[in-house]
Structures are given as C-alpha cells and as structure tokens.
Design goal:
The protein has 159 residues and is α/β, with parallel strands linked by helices. Helices cover 44% and strands 16% of the residues. The chain starts with a helix and ends with a helix. 41% of the residues are buried.
Length: 159
C-alpha cells in the first residue's frame, strides 16, 4: 500500500482513509506506515466528509501509545469535537509556534522524533510537500496533517 502514495506529494484525508483502511484491518501495519506524504484536510461545506475522515484517522492514531500533536493554536480542534470522535485528550499536545521556527520545520522535528502518531498544523499544503517531511513521517511512522487554513476559517471555529 505504501507504493500507492510514494509518487504523490500529498493526499486528502478521504484518500488516505479509504485507500488504507480496508487493507489494514486485522493487520499490524499502521496507516502511518502506509502514508508518509502530508495529508491535506479541507473543511468547506463541500468537503465536510474530509472532517469525518480526518477524525477517523486521528482516532486510529490515538490508539497508539504516542502523542497527537497540534502545532499552533490555529490547528487545534474543539475539545468537544475531539472527545466525541473518541480521541483521548490526555494524549493530545499543543505546541505553540516558536519564534524563528517555521511550521514546516517544527512539523519535521515532531515527525522525526517518533513520539507522535500524528502531527497536525495549518497552512498551504505546498509548503509541507518536501522530501524532508516525507522522510520524517516515514522514519517516525507518523501521520502529517495540514489543515487548509483559509478553508477552515469559512466553516468551523477552532478552539
């Protein structure tokens, strides 16, 4: 399954979920081992299903004994939304942007550490479609999510 995403720069949350879920049921392979490219998440009225797939992927990542990290306040979802999706808030970390560090470099470091099953930030997906982030996600066996910031503002308020 990993070969499917090797040539792609990014995928949507629905593509990642649909392409990996059925093949991974009953398998010890995690979605993070199959998808090492950044996963774009858009929350527009036309893409509300992306939110559902994103939350399902986060729930699966939450089952691992690792953190789910949100980089920056803009990336953080409402606590009620996370808990209703079955995500244990005790495994959620929020990293506020450190001065002088880009979101992509912070994401790369968090992915590379291997301490997070998923790392979520906001921005333009193109800024995160780097070989370094792909390699960090692969090595850390972590999922990298990029929330489309402009579209997110239109639909859902994050707290």
């Amino acid at each position: 399954m990993a070969e499917l995403f090797e040539s792609q720069h990014s995928v949507s949350a629905s593509q990642a979920y649909k392409s990996t879920y059925s093949s991974l049921q009953g398998s010890s392979t995690s979605i993070a081992q199959s998808v090492s490219c950044p996963i774009e998440v858009s929350f527009t009225d036309e893409h509300q299903t992306q939110l559902a797939y994103f939350l399902r992927l986060l729930k699966q990542a939450n089952q691992e004994n690792r953190w789910i990290m949100f980089i920056g306040h803009d990336a953080l979802l409402d606590k009620k939304l996370l808990t209703s999706a079955g995500i244990n808030l005790n495994k959620v970390l929020v990293l506020h942007k450190t001065k002088g560090k880009s979101l992509s470099s912070l994401m790369e470091r968090a992915l590379k550490s291997g301490n997070c099953s998923a790392v979520i930030t906001t921005g333009n997906i193109e800024a995160f479609q780097t070989a370094a982030i792909r390699q960090a996600a692969h090595n850390g066996k972590s999922l990298a999510f990029v929330i489309n910031k402009e579209q997110a503002k239109q639909c859902i308020t994050f707290h």
